[in-house]
Design a protein that fits this description.
This protein is an all-alpha fold. Helix content is 68%, strand content 0%.
Length: 231
Amino acid sequence: MSQQASSPQPWYKQFFFILLVASCVFSALLIFAFWVDGWAVWLLGLLVIAAWMPLIFSTMGKIFPKSAGLALLYVLVMFQGAHMIEHLAQMYELHILGWPGPKAQGIIGFLNIEWVHLVWNTWVLAMVGLLLFIYRRNWWLWALCIFAIYHEAEHVYIVSIYVRTGIAGNPGLLAKGGLIGGGLPIIRPDLHAIYAVFEEAMLLMIYFMERGKFRRAQAPQPSSSVQLATG
């Protein structure tokens, strides 16, 4: 009885593992340099993002030939995850470090401006709308789309106030002091951090749902064989 030798891992799995390790190591070195040399936080943030871009786009390139929809979902999950981390960093500055609002700008503070928020949410809404053409039967994606439309409307309102008055930081629709009934008893940075976490959680759920459906559809179906008895 001959023992079959185990086949080596496919080259792309080894390649992605090397990219993952390299991204982690490079990020750790960047953080070490930040603490030793006193780099600006925004510079550290941009460099860490750049360190992970090869892995993200290589993974997307592997997924895309099999499923364009899953590749788009993957990119949206990754970028919205980075956006969520930015909001959570601002929460850390506000509530743990006790920084005042104008100082608590997140990691890449120079991007914390009203127009950037509007452009980002417009891109997210456009991506979700595009994904609806592919996964139109996913009701969680429809729910996310409705929320993204609301989020977009809020930032359109905030930018309209900013254009008219030149004053940034309007509470928007539902934050404390907002347009709708004076808003909820929660300040805008906290509320929008909750928005970011909610959107990322929804995207992760949708991604794993659709990936599971795709894998089940690609799995070989057992063929039913009819055995004929001969006598």
